[in-house]
Amino acid sequence: MEAARRGDRDAFNELVRSTYRDIYSLAYRLTGNRDDAADVVQDAYVRAYRAIRRFRGDSSFSTWMYRITSNCASTHLSRRSRQRTEELSDEVPIVDQRPEQDPSLRAEAAVLRHHIDRAIRALPERLRQVVVLRDLHDLSHSEIADELGITTSAAKVRLHRARQRLRAVLQRTTDLGAGQTASVHHEEQGEAAP
User: Fold this and answer.
1) C-alpha angle with apex 112: 111 to 114, nearest 5 degrees?
2) What span, in angstroms and rounded, lies between the C-alpha atoms of 112 and 166?
3) CB-count exposure of residue 102 (10 Å: 0-12, 13-18, 19+)
4) Better-predicted residue by pLDDT, 62 or 107
5) Which of 181, 173, 59, 192 is nearest to 117 (CA)?
6) pLDDT digits (tens, 9 = 90+) for 176-192
7) Which long-range CB contacts under 8 A does 40-46 form with residues at least 24 apart?
8) What is the pLDDT of residues 103-149, one digit of tens each?
9) How many CB atoms lie within 10 A of CB 109?
């Protein structure tokens, strides 16, 4: 960190390598699109590189990058909403790569993660930001408040609302899935679906 602050490009590149996966994940979850996430990540690291000498070290580099990435995503989404109106594809494969799980568990986990990811992307931006920072990047309420420039109580309220919406969407998805499973089971048995 100190070397990067003194202008050492190799040191900054090492910081990028060590944080890239988390920063891209955050950008993707905030934008819901791979291309937009790549743009946001590039913009975030360029901004960080230009501002690294002013980084005071009050938080970790990754927390500082979360803030920059959130700001870049917000700016990018605002600009995108003014420029584009077409529907973006949400077909993003999410694969659980833990080899110790059997294929059926991996398939179930991938389906669940797909539903969760779609539900998160469907949230309004202000709610999506809070839930991503808290539940995916494990920031505290006060850190989220600092990142987004809101009060801690506002962060808690937004998180509560976001989780309520996610719960409702996921419950509907689960109910629909259970209904489809019941229909398939009854059809296989030669019965009418309930």
Assistant:
1) 65
2) 13
3) exposed
4) 62
5) 173
6) 655 544 443 444 344 44
7) 40/69, 40/72, 40/73, 40/76, 41/69, 43/72, 43/75, 43/76, 44/68, 44/69, 44/72, 45/16
8) 666 666 677 777 777 888 888 888 888 888 887 777 888 888 888 88
9) 15
Query: What is the number of other CB atoms lying within 10 angstroms of the CB of residue 160?
Result: 12
* Other Cβ atoms closer than 10 A to 175: 10
Q: Angle at CA 10, nearest 5°, toward 55 and 24? A: 65
Distance CA 76, CA 63 (A): 20
Q: Can you read off the two tokens belonging to residue 58?
A: 């009050």
Instruction: Output the six-digit token pair for 158.
Output: 């937004």
pLDDT for residue 82: 59
Looking at the chain, the whole-number percentage of residues with pLDDT higher than 70 is 74
Q: Which residue has the tokens 């917000």?
A: 74
Please give the helix or strand (H or E) that residue 46 lies within, else none. Answer: helix 34-51
Tokens of 64: 């500082």
42-56, 74-88, 160-174, range with the lowest pLDDT: 74-88
DSSP H helical segments within 52-124, as ranges?
61-83, 103-122
